[in-house]
Amino acid sequence: MRHLRHNRGGFTLIEMIVAIAIGAIILAVAGMGIVNVTNGLFLTRQNAHTALKAQAAMMRIEKEFHIITAVSSGSATRLDYTNNRGGIAASHTLELSGPAIQLDGDTLVDGVTSLRLSYSAAYTGPFTPVWSAGDKVINISFTLSGSGGSQSTFTTRVRSVKL
Fold it and tell me: What is the pLDDT of residue 142?
């Protein structure tokens, strides 16, 4: 009888193996959850960075286009124009060059998959992909590749006060 009581108070080898296996399964599931949360945070951070790059580029383009005094040519992916920065008239070019939007050869934003410029005489349109005399409003839209293959499109409309 003593021997039976003593055995009932402990664990058998099978019970210990089952407990270790259940613990391992719980740890594996918890580990996968932590990895998923970490990946989500990384993607969120990368996409926030992409949005900030786009916002900075869009603000620069808006400032440039707001003070345009003349346009020599405009297409869906390029605009040749003159403006007065600091009271000095100069010619400039904004264009899609490879995967980047460039202003006078300097990259404003990279990772660009598309740029669409369209033009109109009135703020409400209709907009066309080619500049014509009398146009005063420029619609700007570009798409950036984000983290994880996501695509984000940014759009604004600028009316030049000098045209």
Answer: 97
Domains of the chain, by residue range, sit at: 2-159
Q: What is the pLDDT of residues 44-98, one digit of tens each?
A: 888 889 999 999 999 999 999 999 999 999 999 999 999 988 888 999 999 999 9
Rounded (10°) CA dihedral 128, 129, 130, 133: 30
Residue with tokens 């089952």: 18
Per-residue tokens: 45: 């951070």
pTM of the model: 0.76
Beta strands across the sheet bearing 112-120: 112-120, 137-145, 151-159
81: which 2 tokens? 């124009």
Q: What is the DSSP letter of 35?
A: H
* Cα(46)–Cα(110) distance, integer angstroms: 14
